Amino acid sequence: MVEKTFPGQKISGRVFADLVKERGGSLSHSYFSNILAGKVTQPSEDILKALGLGFGVDWRFFKDESEVVDDVVAGLQFLAKRRTGEISGVAGRGLDQDGLPPELLQFALSLLEDARSREGTPGTNGAAAHGAPEK
Known about the structure:
Elements: H1 2-5, H2 13-22, H3 29-36, H4 45-55, H5 65-84, H6 102-119
């Protein structure tokens, strides 16, 4: 993965850790070096997210295929239930002080926009959701 992402470059653990930090993540250079050396074989989800930032890929790239398939199936089941009316709203529970993650917020906004367009309600194109007045 290092050779494909950084062809012809020698990427040290420090350089990679700095790259992750620049992109908003956190990863120690020693931990990354341990991953490369094969000393770490089951990194946490947070580490996978940091690796995704460093390599410029979605973090799920590093998950076992069966786990990704489970996530996709759960997402498709949610969408199917939403479209059939089994799920009519989304409530956030157990949120931390930062609120919803940006990806979930964007997903929720897209569901609202889809619902508005199906109901014939004038859409906001995200303007009202971001504090801008509707036209």
